[in-house]
Specification:
0% of the residues lie in helices and 50% in strands.
């Protein structure tokens, strides 16, 4: 059974940084798309970054590009989301998810297995 566990969230001041981790068990990362999503109460999940585990091809939402960096460590079945220059509007519950590899790009994968998330709060 696939299990995803996120960690690294917390409270940070505007302009600060956080490093989120997504650890997977029950599979190997080598043949999947792995995405990071965020959700605020009353809104749908928003995809913010994803990476193809086999070759590292990645995608970022415009609102985070240049501030967030996604990377993977297939040997550790872990995907990292480095978040810099955080803004109050980045406050959300951040979750990772696994989906099949798709030729159109990881942002289009039908993500099916999700972690429970880690809360990120950006506030002074």
């Amino acid at each position: 059974q696939v299990q995803l566990v996120e960690s690294g969230g917390g409270l940070v001041q505007p302009g600060g940084s956080l490093r989120l981790s997504c650890a997977a068990s029950g599979l190997t990362f080598g043949d999947y798309e792995i995405g990071w999503f965020r959700q605020v109460p009353g809104q749908d999940h928003e995809g913010i970054a994803c990476i193809r585990s086999s070759d590292g091809t990645s995608w970022y939402r415009d609102s985070v590009e240049g501030r967030f960096t996604i990377s993977r460590d297939n040997a550790k079945n872990t995907v990292i989301l480095q978040m810099d220059s955080l803004k109050p509007e980045d406050t959300a519950l951040y979750s990772c998810a696994i989906g099949p590899i798709v030729t159109a790009g990881c942002e289009t994968s039908p993500y099916a297995s999700w972690g429970k998330g880690t809360q990120v709060t950006v506030s002074s």
